[in-house]
Amino acid sequence: MKKIFTKFALALLVLAFIPISEVNAQNQLEISHAGYKATLDEIKSQQTFPVKRGEVIVNYDGDNESALGANAASTYIVAVRFTPEELAPYYNSCSITKVRYFIKDTSYVDSIRMLIYGSGTATEPGVLLVDEPADTLVDGWNEFTLPTPLTIVSGDYWVGYEVETSGGCWPVGTDAGPMVPGKGGWYYSEATGWKEIASFHESLNRNLNIRAVLSSSSSCPPITNLAKTVNSNNTVTLNWTTPDQSSWPSDCDGDIYFEFYNGTTEIGHNDTDSLTSWTTSALEAGTYSLGVRISYWKNSNEVVCYANTVFVDVTIENEIACPGITNLEATVNPDNTVTLNWINPDPSTYPSTDIDYWFYDGDEQIGSDWTNNLTTWVTPMLTQGTHNLGVQVGYYDSGYICKTDTVFVEVNITNSYTCPPVNNLTATVNSDNTVTLNWTNPDSSNLPSTCDSLEFRFYLGATILGFSYEDSLNSWTSTSVFPNGTHTFDVVVYYYNNNGNYICDAKASVTVTISSGIDCPSVNNLSATVNPDNTVDLSWTLPTELPTGCNGDIDFLFYNGSEQIGFDHADSLTSWTTPVFSEGTHNLTVVIYYLDSSYNIICFAEASITVTTSVEELKASILSAEIYPNPAKDLLNIECDSEIKGIELYDALGRMLINKINIADTKDVINVSSLNHGMYMLRLHTENGSGIFKVIIE
């Protein structure tokens, strides 16, 4: 098998599914406490959430590696079986308080119910002890807090969940295996009864990503007088009375800890002993059950007990306000950068104190900054003419609460300013056919006025050979050995301001001829065909002569300008299709790499071709599709008169950001709330054909 060399390494996740899904197992369980560890046989504990003091995490799995599921709408149960071998040290002193589980894909999951069974046999659980709905689900690790802690007394405890899906999907996370026999992976459906997942197929010899969290079950006093205040920015301030210290458990040495909940979901914590007030993040309009739980500690790392959670109901009547900036002003600098200044909203109206900023020139994003309460920012160097510069604010709390409309100011750049390239660039071919580049840097008086640092990048055609952040660099030698022929090398200098924001760049080129090396032919007869969906089919013929030392091992890299857009390792490849492109002119390059018998690069050669693309949206004669709202902020709805097979969303550089397959419906919704403002390309695959649509994200 051909070795993939490092430069083009690609990680592939291959899922082999029989009507269920996959996980990661170890031969030993390491039960971790905050502050000490105890080791039990047959399982290894891995922390996926911060471990709170005194918690014990019991599990058989390792990191998530894959998933299992069914290829049609279905309902089934998955569980792991914990036995006295793992639990005996905690009988009558600890309770199961939480369950952590990994969901690979929530797209078609209608519901999940958390289930815990008592002791049964070695192949079937006993009585059902806990049956509760999981309120919220995310792709990845989830944590469910039991409304009432379950004290473990004796025997086995089966911990898992029931999955109900509306279509074929593989949500149940698994590790890489092997499964801990009799414990790490159980599956139940009406058709099969209880079976170990490894019994379905050898590829399912894995552990389920399900973990039980144990905490001390001693009784202790809860907080009292819990009250709430709904603030104008949709946050909620909780106030309470902490129990008098005379009522605390005798083992507690004065160290207490608070956890905050929305229903069964933890939304915060704080270890300030004197705390009597806490404020949530901004909440959407609706009704919430907010809770506070106090726990008591000794020696800073050993829990004495967890009190019952005390709840208060809260109604949020108004939608979240998303205040934007005001008084946006622009000052044009001598180097054609522009300094933007603005006034932030009153902090009391913020839905979150974590604020992000994005900057635009029309629809094109030109920068971003995550500094809270930022009031000034300098653009990159702008071309002569009129520019509509904008500032957008986003409020963040484990995800974007909201993003404001972009506020714009118009500026006119009247002067022409050229970003200075390096001077006196020369190239020397060394005896080993490497190349040394030498140059002088621009005088400091000619640099952009806001310049604080430089970066140098070195290119041969579309291929980047190296880079350096040394400001005073004036010489560079390639590590690559170059073949016979005439080669044009580029030195591109990038200028950055003191915030690390890009200002401008400039290129200098030099050409050398090498005649004492090897021959390294590019592909021949390169041609390009623009498809209706704005992909491009590239075709070529392979060279008839290979470089000395190459036995036929060839790799290909593909570029749009200097942006790598793909690669392929097929030795006999003579065609390749690009991603979807936006409107405009694209310089496409095919780079062929020749490898020796040890899969080291001997040499590479480029061939380029220029194409022009335009966007023509699909007409009803092909298919009828509604895409709305457009522009979109959060959710993008897609409705079609025929079954949708797949949806892809690309940015302006042709990079795929969203890929949904096996939709099998005439409607779908995609979440675009995390995407930045700008134009995107939506590629729609249906029974009646495929097409591309412009989508604007606000």
Briefly say what this structure is.
The chain has 698 residues and is mostly beta strands. The radius of gyration is 31 Å and the shape is globular. The chain has one helix and 49 strands.
Give a structural overview.
With 698 residues, the chain is mostly beta strands. The chain folds into 6 domains: 56-216, Jelly Rolls (Sandwich), CATH 2.60.120; 224-316, Immunoglobulin-like (Sandwich), CATH 2.60.40; 326-413, Immunoglobulins (Immunoglobulin-like); 423-514, Immunoglobulins (Immunoglobulin-like, Sandwich); 524-613, Immunoglobulins (Immunoglobulin-like), CATH 2.60.40; 625-697, Sandwich (Immunoglobulin-like). The chain is built from 1 helix and 49 strands. A hairpin with a 5-residue loop joins strand 31 (423-429) and strand 32. The two termini are 47 Å apart. The relative contact order is 0.08.
Mean pLDDT: 84
* SS-based class: mainly beta
Number of helical segments? Answer: 1
β-strand amount? over 45%
Total domain units? 6
Secondary-structure blueprint of this entry?
Elements (H helix, E strand, L loop, with lengths): L27 E5 L4 E5 L14 E3 L7 E5 L4 E8 L1 H4 L6 E10 L5 E9 L10 E6 L6 E12 L5 E9 L3 E6 L11 E4 L3 E4 L13 E7 L7 E7 L5 E6 L13 E8 L2 E6 L6 E3 L6 E13 L3 E5 L3 E7 L9 E7 L5 E6 L10 E8 L2 E6 L6 E3 L6 E12 L3 E4 L3 E7 L9 E7 L5 E6 L12 E8 L2 E6 L6 E3 L7 E12 L5 E13 L9 E7 L5 E6 L12 E7 L2 E6 L6 E3 L6 E12 L5 E13 L11 E4 L6 E16 L5 E16 L6 E9 L2 E9 L1
Antiparallel strand pairs: 1-2, 3-14, 4-11, 5-10, 5-12, 6-9, 6-14, 7-8, 7-10, 12-13, 15-16, 16-19, 17-18, 17-20, 20-21, 20-22, 23-24, 24-27, 25-26, 25-28, 28-29, 28-30, 31-32, 32-35, 33-34, 33-36, 36-37, 38-39, 39-42, 40-41, 40-43, 43-44, 45-46, 46-47, 46-48, 48-49
